[in-house]
Design brief:
The chain is built from 1 helix and 14 strands, in the order E-E-E-E-E-E-E-E-E-E-E-E-E-H-E. The chain is mainly beta. It has one domain (14-181): L,D-transpeptidase catalytic domain-like, CATH 2.40.440. The strands form 3 sheets. Strands 1, 2, 3, 6, 7, 11, 12, 13 and 14 form a 9-stranded mixed β-sheet that branches. A 3-stranded antiparallel β-sheet has the order 9-8-10, with no helix packed on it. It has a two-stranded parallel ribbon with strand order 4-5. The longest helix is centred in the C-terminal third of the chain and has 10 residues, at 163-172.
Length: 191
């Protein structure tokens, strides 16, 4: 009796962000032999992220879910969960609120970022599991990967790349994919 060979399970994609210094607002995002420019937080990157510090957090963050503007772009091809953005979508950034660092529906009783924007930066959003499980009040909210502005202006703490690059990255992503934001000054640990 012949045994059919099982198809190999594709390995989850690992993306890495490196910047020249902790104060850098631009870096390089690499995955699968591809390297592209990316924008980082306005105060660079740091290990001790705090709400409102405008820094990109150092760490290993799972890619969780994709939101996209169906009125502007096609549904991205990806192995991650995907849902179209709606005008009422938001993300709570109010320290002390029970929905801190979670999706909410606008209008919302506390401070919450609007995900439906006119500037196209949030036409495509990848939520990351930064400060997600457990969620700790004040340690940062709404840390996403999203579309970069022209010239890669600094973000409020997210990682941003050009939309075509983000679409290409999502095509390689699946459950278990991670984004590693690393401090170049530290020795790289084996995985």
């Amino acid at each position: 009796m012949k045994h059919k060979r099982a198809k190999p399970v594709p390995k989850a994609a690992t993306m890495r962000v490196l910047a020249r210094s902790p104060a850098a607002t631009r870096g390089q995002l690499t995955w699968g032999g591809i390297s592209v420019a990316c924008a980082l937080g306005a105060t660079g990157y740091r290990a001790r992220k705090r709400e409102g510090d405008r820094a990109t957090p150092i760490g290993r963050w799972r890619l969780r879910e994709v939101f996209y503007r169906a009125d502007r772009i096609p549904r991205p091809r990806t192995g991650l969960p995907v849902r179209p953005l709606k005008p009422w979508d938001g993300w709570c950034d109010a320290i002390g609120d029970g929905n801190y660092n979670r999706w909410v529906r606008h209008p919302y009783r506390a401070s919450a970022e609007k995900l439906w924007r006119s500037d196209r930066l949030y036409d495509l959003i990848v939520t990351l599991d930064h400060n997600a499980c457990p969620r700790i009040q004040g340690l940062g909210s709404a840390i996403f990967m999203h579309v970069a502005g022209v010239g890669y202006p600094a973000t409020a703490g997210c990682v941003a790349v050009e939309r075509p690059h983000l679409m290409r990255l999502l095509a390689a992503a699946r459950r278990g994919s991670v984004l590693i934001v690393a401090d170049r000054r530290r020795k790289r640990r084996p995985e």
